## 1
Amino acid sequence: TGYITLDEGYGNTGACESAITYIDGDKGILRYRGYAIEELAEKSRFVEVAYLLLHGELPKAEQLLQFSTRLNESSIIHEDMHHFFNGFPRGSHPMGILATMVASLSTFYPIPDELDSATEIQIVANLVSQVRTIAAFSYKKSIGEPLIYPSYKLKYTRNFLNMMFASPVRDYELDEDIVRAIDMFFILHADHEQNCSTSSVRTAGSSMANVYAVASAGICALWGPRHGGANQQVIQMLEQIHADGGDGTEFINQAKDKNSTSRLMGFGHRVYKNFDPRAQVLKQQCDKLLNKSGMTDPLFDIARRLEEIALKDDYFISRKLYPNVDFYSGLILRAAGIPTNMFTVLFAIGRMPGWLAHWREMLHAKQVTITRPRQIYVGETLRRYQDVDQRS
Ligand code: CMC
């Protein structure tokens, strides 16, 4: 094993070449296809950003219309899939449902061994559009309300919120500011180069596995509390602080305690060692949204105070731990009425174009190399087999 270098968690290993997303962790820079995240968050819309990630260029008006229409036309899931929702036990985590349902798309939408570009584009449209339908349906099932189908009249984010919150028995009016905030949330989550879930997509995809199963692998990896699952945990932590009436010092002390496994959720990042630009945009967006009349949230003040305390603490300063994308994002989702257990599902909806952009980039590379890392073996050397009655 002399030539194998140990790099746990691949912190220093470039696993591929990619032209999709650029990050400079020291300077807090994030760009999709060369465009600054701050500019995209301010001026663009999620569907446009999805096109940019997938195709490398911002769409012209005609291309955007075509893409958007295709997403609408691909948004319905096979009727027979509806039965599956009834099979999950009550209280199932929506991420478990999402991963299962997305993998099951492989059985309803079989794909040929050899992909032509038309099929590839349709697969991408199915996944980007249907992940949103499945997410909304799983929520409706969980609260026992009738499913609201996607509408060809509504654009992507509006359509999603309508499927989540409209009902045949009550009026539901979409709030423009909420639609914009959720759309921005999706933009900020759309890609982040070789993070845990995207690496899982590339790893599973490198065996040429069915792409619906590959997308499901991404969802499974995202679920963990150290990755996308952190957004749910942040809100649970803030709710706990609110209920206890403290300022969060207890959570900070626990996170600093090396005898405990707990961490300050929404803090720290493998790549950003100064600030996470997504967290800054989200904090501003929170401020804007929660300043609207009737939308205040005591958890926002708690979050700001907690950030202040942590940023003055030597433990966090010396380890360069700053708020990450998950620290403020949950407050926006709460303001939109999204239940806490759906937060990571919304992350998955946002990340789907990024996963697929990486899958396509890998597929079209000169050569697809199967992901197969080596290891440093630290187990037993050769041992002699003993019959069962001779084992001590
Ligand atoms: N609270 C307390 N200590 C922390 C934290 C935290 N949130 N994050 C890192 N540390 C400590 C860690 O214990 C270690 O200390 P020491 O050097 O004394 O052993 C040091 O900082 C370096 O940590 P690491 O685990 O080597 O860093 P990493 O790059 O492997 O981990 C991370 C990055 C994001 C997994 C980690 O910071 C973490 O678990 N954060 C909390 C969970 C979270 O917010 N995740 C969302 C990440 S951003 C969005 C996404 O990817 O989904």
Note: The mean pLDDT is 94.
## 2
Amino acid sequence: PESITVQELANRMAEKGADLVKALFKMGTAVTLNQPIDQDTAELLVEEFGHRIQRVSDADVEIGMEGEVDAPETLKARPPVVTIMGHVDHGKTSLLDALRGTNVVSGESGGITQHIGAYQVKTKGGDTITFLDTPGHEAFSEMRARGANVTDIVILVVAADDGLMPQTIEAINHTKAAGVPMIVAINKVDKPEANPQRIRERLLEHEIVVEDMGGETQDVEVSALKRTGLDDLLDKIMLQAELLELTANPDRAAEGNVVEAQLDKGRGAVATVLVRKGTLKIGDTFVIGSESGKVRAMINDKGQNVKTAGPSTPVEVLGLSGVPMAGDQLTVVENEARAREVAAYRQEQATKKRTTAAPTSFEHMFSALN
Ligand code: GTP
Ligand code: MG
């Protein structure tokens, strides 16, 4: 009773066995259809596929608030969510600035990104791309690990004059663990001492083989400073995105993840949420981590008030009961009573988790994988 085979679980979930095997492989577990998996793994899978878990022993407790799986005909194309990773000072924020045509770097204290910014960029072809900028500081690696779980594509920024550094390698490992495709942006190619070829060679040591060297990883030479190579980078992102066939159902109760959150003087608890599916609307009642709330206002990445936010859209949400944590899940629920119930349940679960073993960042990462 403590274990179940992949095929049995697939039958109960009315999913294809092969899809479960694939999902397990992404989680780092290689199993065949007839192999048994333990209960924790089974629960993760069930959640991953958006089903509810009914515990026989604990029948009135539902883990996860995800509704039924979205029927294929409800799915519509959504923008890719791209996370920019790389070593400190290799130019992540500058690159994002250049892509947005703004200047965030000069407004940062000491030029070190202290939070994850989320922005949308429109390409010349009219496509929208959602970008997450991650902090480069060593101390934020945990947050960065969480940042990968909502990500479709990772841009690995490597400064051509500096090469592969500890956090570059860390980012490579996070990306591999998350099973997310990577595009390498070789930055600062304007510098006289830049040596892009050396970077391509060094990447081989980490089993990243760029197209030029016969591999499958796309790479592009850019200069965030001189603004060169940017259209090429955007093209490559869209090429990768098309291969991924990214979709979501926009016409359902919203689900999303906290990208960053803080207590704001005057505005109270504020969270930047990346909507994954559904459409978040003013007035929606939600649970966010172990907090709850009602959407009082939403502000987009351009600082404008918006009434709705669909899949892959980052928005600042006002109206929270408290400050959630980065990576926490937002789920829209029917009413406030239900919100309080779920929030209390999650709080209880969080306490339980803290008193048992601390999860590794890898676990964090795939526990929220969609
Ligand atoms: P953290 O957020 O601290 O990890 O840094 P970051 O990766 O966001 O780097 P940031 O964009 O702050 O850039 C670091 C420094 O490199 C700044 O002084 C930039 O002006 C400089 N820089 C960024 N891109 C380029 C480039 O393409 N060429 C040159 N020459 N300098 C660049
Ligand atoms: Mg930065």
Note: The radius of gyration is 21 Å.
